[in-house]
Design a protein that fits this description.
This protein is 44% helix and 15% strand. It is built from eleven helices and twelve strands. Helix 6 (199-207) packs parallel to helix 7 (225-237) and helix 10 (303-317) crosses helix 11 (333-355).
């Protein structure tokens, strides 16, 4: 069983969200659906998530044939029109190959149409297809993100102060006393920094005063405790009050543990091995999958099993939010819908019950 030893103080309320990359899913005859249909299905999944009490839905940005969502903000706007309470965000926005001003404008517009429910997670992304697509050099990988994040932070300050923005860098044209519209009604667009496992990235998030989202896709999540501690120390050194810490990890919920594993395993292997061929990874074996489910960062099982594991991770890392990536390669839409329903109706209430008094 997963050890839930308490390493950090828990926040008073844990937000529980869902993420998807719009993985291209299989239809009834096991052939892959058109990307357009997958996008419509994602809107239906998010609408259900709102109905069953999920706090957040995040859409990842990709530019490749196995993931359907290349414009998360557009899909999120469609979701905004069909939902009432769920928060809407990216998971992640690849800032390095985008323009910070346009990103701000798109998400502040989403915030307006959704009545203040927009968020975004900024990151460099684990895939690099967007760099050649939009004319950026991978040789500037670090420079692009660092400079564009600096500009985006300045835009967030403008949102609060309404003082015109001036900025100079090397990767885009400078801004001289510019205003950007629309501003948000709340005064600051909630913006997280997505981190995959770099102390430098953790300290960067603290330097800019942005909440931290840890992408934990393998291994014991407790191994990220040093990153949490580093983030908290950096915030203190920069004189910034404590900020939210979140985790993004893959998972799947079904009626029983056995059913959940058997449903997701073929799709998980298909997705992992396809990406692995591109990156030089060995094929994943069932024993590796089962180990990740049991002691690693795959949240797969019945509602009770998944809730117990989320609660343990939340205690261990002192989380303010946990987002489960519920899509897994070609796993069919109807199984995703059932997973979303169980997550909202059973997992979320049980996690909060488990954390009462922590």
């Amino acid at each position: 069983m997963f050890d839930d030893s308490n390493m950090h103080d828990m926040p008073t309320l844990l937000e529980l969200g869902l993420d998807t990359f719009g993985d291209v899913t299989a239809g009834p005859d096991d052939t892959l659906l058109p990307q357009a249909q997958v996008i419509r299905n994602v809107v239906a999944q998010a609408t259900l998530a709102d109905e069953v009490g999920v706090d957040f839905i995040g859409l990842g940005e990709h530019h490749r044939e196995d993931f359907s969502i290349s414009a998360p903000d557009v899909v999120l706007a469609a979701i905004a029109g069909r939902t009432k309470r769920i928060h809407l965000g990216s998971a992640v926005t690849v800032l390095s190959s985008d323009d910070p001003v346009r990103v701000y404008e798109r998400f502040s517009t989403l915030d307006a149409v959704s009545g203040g429910r927009a968020e975004l997670i900024l990151g460099r992304g684990s895939f690099t297809e967007s760099f050649p697509l939009f004319g950026f050099s991978l040789e500037q990988y670090e420079e692009l993100f660092e400079e564009k994040l600096e500009l985006f932070a300045a835009l967030l300050d403008y949102d609060r102060t309404h003082e015109p923005v001036s900025w100079r860098g090397t990767v885009r044209a400078p801004l001289e006393h510019q205003r950007v519209y629309p501003t948000t009604e709340s005064g600051r667009l909630k913006t997280w920094i997505g981190v995959g496992g770099s102390i430098q990235s953790v300290v960067r998030a603290a330097r800019y005063g942005m909440p931290l989202m840890l992408a934990i896709i393998g291994g014991d999540p407790r191994r990220f405790a040093p990153y949490v501690s580093a983030y908290q120390r950096a915030l203190e050194q920069f004189g910034t009050p404590p900020l939210p810490i979140g985790v993004h990890s893959p998972g799947h919920v079904a009626d029983t543990d056995e059913q959940a594993r058997e449903e997701v395993w073929p799709s998980f292997k298909r997705m992992h091995d396809r990406i692995g061929r591109e990156r030089g990874w060995p094929p994943v074996h069932r024993a590796m999958f089962d180990q990740e489910v049991e002691v690693g960062s795959l949240y797969v099982g019945s509602a009770e099993t998944v809730a117990q594991k989320i609660a343990a991770t939340a205690r261990a890392l002192g989380l303010s939010r946990f987002d489960m990536k519920y899509s897994s390669g070609p796993l069919p839409h109807e199984k995703l819908m059932r997973s979303v329903e169980l997550y909202g109706r059973r997992v979320i209430p049980r996690v909060r019950e488990l954390l009462v008094g922590d």
